[in-house]
UniProtKB/TrEMBL annotation:
It comes from the Eukaryota. This is Aspartyl protease. Residues 1-20 form the signal peptide. It comes from Triangularia setosa. PROSITE patterns: ASP_PROTEASE, PEPTIDASE_A1.
Length: 527
């Protein structure tokens, strides 16, 4: 972890300075009503199958929000306040988070209503598919929690060890938009003394401590977990119901990677392959306890975690170089946190400025909390980054996004990062979706390996019989498609605003939809 943790004995309050999951949405991804979301140029068809080609730079903002009723009133739009609220919450102090009033409760349907991308079913042992909200905005897995086997989505977060889920005692706006775990309904829940407060900079997550049975990738383990009774309101912009901490560091919620080793459930190794939405098929996958040779080509090249970071349990490695068009940036003695819980790439303003000196036509835009760069929209050159003496590409389609008539970089310089170590970068999904990543904590060692990803499978469609492909959750969806419970997603572009109803849903909602149509068909045949 980047920041300290402390135990306040007299208050029995655990406090964690959370340094993973950079809760950040750039200003350009928010509309004037204050609703924020990731990017897409796509129009959706066939239950959300992408029509964007693999080489296009994404353009229009996608404002994907849960279903609303007419009485819902958007909050006043304050661009500066929103930017402050969405800076990397792992790096800073926590102002108070305003909760919605009880009057708002009846205006929202409880449960997770987000439109997500469902992965195809993995076949390798110890593996589970990675769901996506975005495109390419956040990556999470589906687990089952408690004796009732409550399905929940949990963000994969190698940047921190804190593990928590939203609980039914949390009645705030952000929680009501998600599935929440009921500890009283689980016979396997074991409460522990003390409460937890996890600081994310512009907000906090508080909850109770306990142990619970968690099933993931076909394995059931008894893990420490916090069940939240309060969450930062900014979490309404994200589809996951909790966070699975995958760092090796000490944590107020217990360290998952250590626990699975103590229980001999599987080795403390996590291998991650993130999909790119424009590739057309969501073949994202995480393997616990080993690697899947089918997900990469060539050889995995490892870089050891330095001694200081190893002692702290941080997935951080030396950054050898960062270059553009054959020219290296003036960066030396840098390190990089390899963070699956962060969407973009972040560095200090000075380091990011050194990088963009190499990009012809780049221009700095100074925001209240971060530095952003515009570049000519005909830029096609990849950044190249070197770890362990091996060069990896970050293509323009991943680090560049077109917004109206300008193109913005997804490599940011942060200003207000109070616990951000000098010379440290955060390498998020903008980089990671280009490689097969292995986080190896076995044999009392820590190392990170990268390899070239295997080519994704070709997009498929329904067969001649009309039978749809089956996703990992068992629901009929097209591979790479987006699905939700019963949500209505609003796809917003500078040209049109088209309401779109998404079917085939996550969890119970999709089953209800399927059964409803079956009953309609039966009634028609009966007539």
């Amino acid at each position: 972890m980047l920041g300290p943790t402390s135990f306040l004995t007299q208050l029995t309050l655990w406090v964690a300075a959370a340094n993973a999951f950079v809760l950040f949405v750039p200003d350009d991804q928010c509309d004037p009503s204050g609703h924020c979301g990731p990017f897409t140029k796509t129009t959706r068809k066939h239950a959300g199958h992408s029509t964007r080609s693999n080489d296009e730079v994404v353009t229009f903002p996608l404002v994907a929000r849960p279903r609303q009723v007419p009485n819902d009133r958007p909050e006043p739009f304050d661009r500066v306040a929103l930017a402050i609220a969405r800076v990397a919450q792992k790096f800073g102090n926590s102002p108070a988070v305003r909760a919605r009033s009880g009057q708002d409760d009846k205006n929202y349907i409880p449960g997770n209503q987000y439109s997500i991308s469902t992965p195809i079913t993995p076949t390798s042992e110890g593996s589970t598919g990675i769901y996506q909200y975005g495109p390419d905005f956040s990556y999470f897995i589906r687990i089952e929690l408690g004796s009732q086997k409550m399905p929940m989505y949990m963000l994969l977060d190698t940047g921190a060890a804190n593990t928590w889920v939203m609980g039914t005692d949390c009645t705030e706006y952000a929680c009501r938009l998600h599935d929440r775990f009921n500890t009283t309904a689980s016979t396997s829940w074991k409460p522990e003394d003390g409460n937890v407060t996890i600081s994310y900079g512009s907000g906090t997550v508080t909850g109770v401590l306990g142990r619970e049975k968690m099933t993931l990738a076909g394995m059931t383990v008894d893990v420490p977990v916090s069940v939240a009774d309060h969450t930062a309101e900014e979490l309404r912009h994200y589809a996951f119901d909790g966070i699975l901490g995958l760092a090796m560091s000490d944590s107020v919620t217990g360290t998952f990677m250590r626990e699975i080793g103590l229980q001999n459930a599987f080795k403390p190794i996590v291998a991650v392959s993130m999909n790119r939405d424009s590739d057309g098929v969501n073949d994202g996958q995480v393997t616990f306890g080993g690697i899947d040779p089918a997900k990469y080509v060539g050889e995995i090249k490892y870089a050891n975690v330095p001694d200081v970071e190893k002692k702290n349990g941080e997935w951080t490695i030396p950054l050898d170089s960062f270059s553009f068009d054959g020219k290296k940036a003036d960066l030396s003695n840098k390190k990089a946190i390899i963070d699956t819980g962060t969407t973009y790439i972040f560095g200090s303003p000075a380091d990011v400025a050194a990088l963009f000196k190499l990009v012809p036509g780049s221009k700095l835009q100074v925001k209240p909390d971060y530095h952003e760069y515009t570049v000519p929209c005909d830029t096609k050159t990849a950044f190249k980054i070197t770890f362990g003496g091996v060069i990896y590409d970050i293509p323009a389609k991943d680090w560049l996004a077109q917004v109206d008539d300008q193109c913005l970089s997804r490599i940011y310089g942060f200003i207000k990062l109070q616990s951000f170590k000098p010379g440290v970068w955060v390498m998020g999904d903008t980089f990671l979706k280009n490689v097969y990543s292995v986080f190896d904590g076995d044999n009392d060692n820590m190392r990170i390996g990268f390899a070239n990803k295997a080519a994704p499978p070709k997009p498929t469609s329904t067969s001649n019989t009309g039978a749809a492909a089956t996703g990992e959750d068992g629901l009929p969806v097209m591979p790479g498609s987006h699905s939700s419970g019963s949500a209505t997603g609003d796809i917003t572009s500078p040209e049109t605003i088209t309401p779109q109803t998404v079917s085939g849903g996550s969890k119970v909602g999709g089953i209800t939809f399927t059964l409803a149509w079956a009953l309609v068909a039966w009634a028609m045949m009966a007539v």
